[in-house]
Design a protein that fits this description.
Largest interface: A-B, 29 and 34 residues
Order of helices and strands of chain A: EHHEEHHHHHHHHHHHHHHHHHH
Strand order of the largest sheet of chain B: 1-2
Strand content of chain B: under 5%
Mean pLDDT of chain A: 87
Number of helices of chain B: 19
Helix content of chain A: over 70%
Number of strands of chain B: 2
Oligomer: heterodimer
Largest sheet of chain A: 3 strands, mixed
Order of helices and strands of chain B: HHEEHHHHHHHHHHHHHHHHH
Shape of chain B: globular
Low-confidence stretches of chain B: none
Shape of chain A: globular
Distance between the termini of chain B: 38 Å
Low-confidence stretches of chain A: none
Radius of gyration of chain A: 21 Å
Helix content of chain B: over 70%
Number of strands of chain A: 3
Largest sheet of chain B: 2 strands, antiparallel
Strand order of the largest sheet of chain A: 1-2-3
Distance between the termini of chain A: 7 Å
């Protein structure tokens, strides 16, 4: 399929708008809290609009790009929107918008709000940059900025736990990004500066050993971000420490950026044919499959809600990795669409947990009994997302697992079907008890400090709207999955290009 | 105006005369002194600008002082590497502006004129060092800048200042003597002091032993000046005890003189063409790698912020020296550009640290907790400097990492590229400690929150440098494409 290249001047707006938002946070705060809320929402909405504006063209087979400036005499900062990037970009911007609106309520009584909003918007900017980067150096620039400049968000609470989680986060991430840098330098040395296009940059005549070294470096580097076992250590600590709206994007997008990096490496840097020859992907499959089951088992044992969800994220990212590693077209569709679907499912769950923390002071699964009576909407949203995560049709989680399942059968490795179903079963085991406790268990009669108190009530509308919207997206992406313009169509297009 | 031939001598004469006249001009009029010094540096910077434009337009050029031709006359030579005068003038000018309030409040009034004299002399020495085309003058300017640097370390009068200055003096003086000895050896075998001349005559020299001795001597003593591990022991005390504007000059510029000397030595010996430099290259690459790691390792255990920055300089010199030793085109570009970029970054950090110490009176991480709230602008500059020095793209520090790592692959020694990238991880650790302490930890001294921003004369240099840390990363192609032809010319047949 020939794609048509179009120079797009609005493309840089996708990351310049959030940067602008971050810059004007302080002046807007001087004006008033309302001005800040409106200004940030408008600019974030603008980013969503920019990201959405590419989709019709992309579906018509166009590719948007722009060369911004030369970072070195040889290498341009090259932005490029292809189906894979477009899908990632729209997912990120929408999730960020939901989390931002939610933040206005959630962060209202917090300290250092300007710092929080500035870095929150900056992290969106870097994410959009990663999604739309057209060559490896551009990718690296945004990826590193993103990795480092989210540190103030992880440590935002400034408690000893948050500081410890921040240290763990930054050490993991820095080691990871060093591997990425090394791999990119090596790739650049062998292949020179090239657009991230489908054919792959590397070829077999560059030496098998070199190629394997590069692949392993990329895998370790992005694997840290994508939380593949055994590189997942930072995830369960960073999530509980961070404020809930940031946990949302952390789980929904940040971790997924690691898998996005692996997708780029697999399909754009190496290319299908070369990966087939190198025969490395089977090891990735083993790791991914192990991660799915292992993290899910750990999730079952967590009492802390956010930790449980964090382990669930690790497990779900295992699905995405498995979908990539199978190197089948249907499986890749499943992997891509699962990134989006997972973003909104997990987003909903984290936003709900944020409300539980804020409104009821509940941090642990064991304190949840009967809370559905007090917070029916929150728990309804939570239940929808939980069911979707397990893979109940017709919710979005089912769609991605369906494609993954098809993919597994396509490449004739039915053993992984057991992993897929096992992961889903474990998801039911770690998510449904939460729902059960909230709906069907009576609150403990002696209501101490740690149980649902009588004054607990539903959160204000400003926080409920994003939660309901995220839950609604989970439903819509499942029910209307095949509508053109929704993630599935983009994912199919991306897979078609990658496997053409 | 650009083609006026005498800019090359003006750029030395103006600051030299200005330095000598400072005490006279300032006699009875202490307020005039800083303005005089700034004026002198402005004129010097103008000359530097003209020279840089000219070299960009027409390539390297020479100036014969008094019209005497080589090998007898004094020749000033300006090539792309000499464009370092630009960064010397820039950091020098900003450090002088920073000194405006700083010196008035920290140094006894009677010493103030001499402080400015010494700073100007120091800058003169460095400018002379990079534009001279003749080895003996190289030594003369090296002495001017070294002697003024020793005195500047001692000028603050704090209790260990004299000791630090003395340690610096002993190490520095020994290395200076070795430089002189080596120059003498080269003169004895080639009969010339002119660098280009020596390069062309060396090829025909039969006696290799004195030449190799001279090479070893020059390399060794410039390594001392560059504070390469394990010859770095003079640096941490000297750089951290000196007044902050001086620290910025010492760390950003003066240590680079050692690196620059190495670069000139390489130019001579690559030019001669018949010498095998593998041994020296290997030594430099290893020492560079060790410096990166050891500098960072020591920095991790420092509590004093200026001490931390001083050790960080050792790491960064390690980058540059490693780039020189790898001797491939990319690595040399990375090394030379980092000479420039590191001056910007370290200038930002030392001036910002100086402003923080000046306003709060504290200098350890524990005491400075929470200062981010009290001095947001200065601390933002520190953060930008920190991000830049650890090499996060697209800041100025990234280019050197990228190019030197690429150069390591190009030279067929990828292990050093790996050492560079992972050595940088150590550097992250202590900058994270600094950022944590400034922003995320509860103040040890609650009164620190009452401290305001430094006066504009300190804030402006900090902000200009911090902005440049970002801009020079994004516009990195400008210095790179400027220096690329010089590197290719220098490597000649050796180039990868």
């Amino acid at each position: 399929m020939e794609s048509q290249l179009i120079v797009s001047n609005i493309l840089p707006a996708a990351f310049l708008l959030p940067i602008l938002a971050a810059i004007v946070v302080v002046p807007m705060t001087r004006l008033s809290e309302h001005a800040r809320a409106i200004g940030l929402t408008v600019m974030c909405l603008g980013t969503v609009v920019v990201a959405a504006s590419f989709i019709p063209g992309i579906l018509d087979g166009r590719i948007y790009e722009i060369y911004l400036l030369r970072l070195t005499p040889q290498i341009w900062i090259h932005m490029r929107v292809d189906p894979m990037g477009a899908l990632f970009g729209i997912t990120a911007s929408v999730l960020w918008l939901l989390a931002l609106v939610y933040s206005f309520g959630y962060m209202a009584d917090e300290h250092h709000k300007s710092r929080y909003y500035a870095f929150f918007m900056l992290s969106l900017a870097w994410t959009m940059g990663v999604a739309y980067s057209g060559n490896l150096l551009t990718f690296l620039v945004f990826y590193e900025l993103f990795s480092i400049l989210t540190y103030p968000l992880v440590t935002h609470e400034e408690t000893p736990e948050a500081m410890a989680a921040g240290t763990k986060y930054i050490i993991y991430i820095l080691i990871g990004s060093s591997f990425v840098l090394l791999a990119i330098v090596f790739t650049y040395f062998l292949a020179g500066d090239q657009t991230l296009a489908t054919q792959g940059l590397l070829s077999m005549d560059m030496g098998k050993a070199n190629l394997i070294v590069i692949f392993v470096c990329f895998l370790i580097g992005f694997g840290v971000k994508a939380a593949i076992f055994p590189l997942h250590g930072w995830v369960p600590d960073a999530h509980p420490a961070a404020p809930a709206p940031f946990s949302t994007v952390l789980s929904g997008i940040m971790v997924a950026i690691g898998t996005f990096g692996i997708m780029r490496v697999a399909f754009n840097v190496f290319g299908l044919e070369l990966l087939g020859q190198l025969d490395v992907m089977c090891y990735v499959q083993y790791l991914a499959a192990f991660t799915i089951i292992f993290a899910a088992i750990l999730a079952v044992n967590q009492d802390n809600l956010k930790r449980r969800l964090a382990y669930s994220t690790i497990s779900q990212m295992g699905y995405v990795m498995l979908g990539i590693a199978l190197l089948g077209q249907e499986a890749f569709v499943g992997a891509l669409v699962h990134v989006t679907n997972h973003a909104f499912m997990k987003g909903t769950l984290f936003l709900c947990v944020g409300l539980l923390i804020k409104q009821a002071g509940v941090h642990n699964v064991s304190e949840l009994r009967g809370i559905a009576k007090k917070m029916p909407i929150t728990m309804a949203a939570f239940s929808v997302a939980a069911l979707s995560m397990i893979g109940t049709p017709p919710l979005s989680g089912f769609v991605s697992k369906w494609y993954l399942g098809l993919g597994i059968l396509e490449v004739e490795q039915p053993l992984y079907l057991a992993v897929l179903l096992g992961g889903a079963l474990l998801a039911a085991i770690y998510l449904l008890p939460i729902v059960y406790a909230a709906y069907f268990q009576e609150p403990e009669p002696a209501a101490g400090d740690d149980s649902v108190s009588a004054t607990t009530r539903e959160a204000p509308l400003s926080m409920l709207v994003p939660v309901v919207a995220a839950a609604a997206l989970t439903v819509i992406l499942g029910l209307f999955a095949s509508t053109p313009g929704l993630p599935l169509s983009l994912a199919r297009l991306a897979a078609k290009i990658a496997f053409h | 105006m650009v083609s006026w031939p005498h800019w090359l001598v003006t750029i030395i004469i103006v600051p030299l005369v200005g330095a000598v006249l400072t005490p006279v001009v300032g006699r009875g009029r202490p307020k005039v002194i800083p303005i005089w010094a700034l004026g002198i540096m402005t004129a010097t910077s103008l000359a530097a600008l003209m020279l840089i434009i000219r070299v960009a337009q027409e390539g390297p050029f020479s100036y014969l002082v008094g019209g005497w031709a080589r090998p007898y006359g004094i020749e000033l030579h300006f090539d792309e590497f000499s464009a370092s005068v630009g960064i010397i003038c820039l950091v020098g000018w900003l450090a002088l502006l920073f000194s405006y309030h700083y010196v008035a409040e920290t140094i006894p009034a009677r010493r103030v004129p001499y402080f400015y004299t010494l700073v100007l002399l120091n800058l003169t020495g460095m400018i002379g060092f990079v534009v001279t085309g003749d080895l003996f003058n190289l030594f003369v300017f090296l002495e001017i800048l070294s002697l003024s640097a020793y005195a500047l370390v001692a000028v603050s009068g704090e209790h260990i200042a004299e000791m630090a200055a003395f340690k610096y003096l002993v190490m520095g003086a020994v290395s200076s003597i070795v430089v002189l000895l080596s120059i003498g050896l080269l003169y004895s075998v080639t009969g010339s002091l002119n660098m280009a001349d020596i390069a062309s005559r060396l090829a025909g020299v039969e006696q290799r032993l004195p030449v190799m001795l001279a090479l070893a001597g020059l390399a060794m003593s410039f390594m001392v000046k560059a504070a390469l591990f394990p010859l770095h022991i003079w640096l941490p005390d000297a750089h951290s005890i000196a007044p902050s504007p001086v620290s910025a000059i010492l760390s950003g510029l003066v240590v680079k003189v050692g690196v620059f000397g190495l670069l000139r030595v390489y130019q001579i010996f690559y030019g001669a063409g018949t010498y095998d430099l593998t041994g020296l290259n290997t030594a430099l690459v290893w020492l560079g790698a060790i410096s990166i790691v050891m500098g960072a390792f020591f920095a991790i255990f420092q509590e004093d912020i200026k001490m931390m920055l001083a050790y960080s300089t050792i790491s960064n010199i390690g980058y540059i020296v490693m780039g020189l030793g790898l001797a491939s085109q990319y690595s040399l570009i990375g090394a030379t550009v980092h000479i420039f970029n590191h001056a910007l970054i370290k200038g930002t950090l030392f001036l910002a640290a100086g402003a923080i110490i000046h306003k709060t009176g504290y200098r350890t991480l524990t005491d400075l907790r929470g200062v981010g709230k009290a001095m947001p602008v200065t601390c933002m500059a520190v953060s930008i400097g920190a991000i830049s020095i650890v090499g996060i793209p697209p800041t100025a520090g990234f280019l050197c990492k990228w190019y030197i790592a690429l150069g390591a692959f190009q030279a067929g020694k990828p292990a050093f590229g790996i050492a560079l990238i992972f050595g940088a991880l150590f550097i992250f650790i202590y900058y994270i400690r600094m950022v944590n302490s400034f922003y995320f930890q509860k103040p040890t001294h609650p009164e620190i929150l009452e401290v305001g921003e430094a006066p504009l004369s300190m804030l402006i240099p900090i902000l200009v440098l911090a902005t440049l840390c970002l801009v020079m990363g994004i516009l990195g192609r400008i210095p790179i494409s400027f220096i690329e032809p010089a590197v290719i010319r220098m490597l000649g047949p050796f180039g990868g």
